[in-house]
Amino acid sequence: MGDRTVAFDPATPFCPFGLVHWSRTNSAALRFSDEPPAFFLIPPFPPDMALTQREIALTLDLQGNLAGTVKTTFTGQEALVRRLEHIHDDETARREALEKEFSDLLPMARRPS
């Protein structure tokens, strides 16, 4: 596209435009052009193309109980990997996996029951 090379990964379900699954980076790909097709190396994506962002709103009551909400946003490779990991899961299974992942980040003594 113009002076920029954009790789596509049509074999990976839910892979967005301009993203290639990380396992296919640093490998040979075929470039189509007006000239005879040529091979090129798909570069690895920079770390900022695989981000997890968490927004946490918590309240602490007088008894020392902590309650609140967590909003997690996955982008780039992180989002693609999670889509593929849970491609056959229903909403309940996806929610449980995300809750377990977040729970594993908490200190052992204060995990919710």
Strand order of the largest sheet: 1-2
What profile does the largest beta sheet have? 2 strands, antiparallel
- Which of globular, elongated, flat, extended, rod-shaped describes the shape? elongated
Which structural class should the secondary elements be placed in?
alpha+beta
Count of separate DSSP helical elements: 2
Uncertain segments are none
State mean pLDDT (0 to 100 scale): 85
Beta content comes to 25-35%
How would you spell out the order of helices and strands? EEEEHH
Q: What quaternary form is this? A: single chain
CA-to-CA gap between the ends?
52 Å
Radius of gyration (CA) equals: 20 Å
- Give the fraction of residues assigned to helices: 10-25%
Tally the beta strands.
Answer: 4
Name a few traits of the molecule.
single chain, 4 strands, two-stranded antiparallel ribbon, 2 helices, elongated, 113 residues, alpha+beta
What does it look like?
The protein has helices at residues 77-85, 91-103; strands spanning 28-31, 38-41, 50-60, 66-76. A two-stranded antiparallel ribbon has the order 1-2. The protein contains 2 helices and 4 strands, in the order ββββαα. It is elongated. The termini are far apart. 19% of the residues lie in helices and 27% in strands. β1 and β2 (38-41) form a beta hairpin.
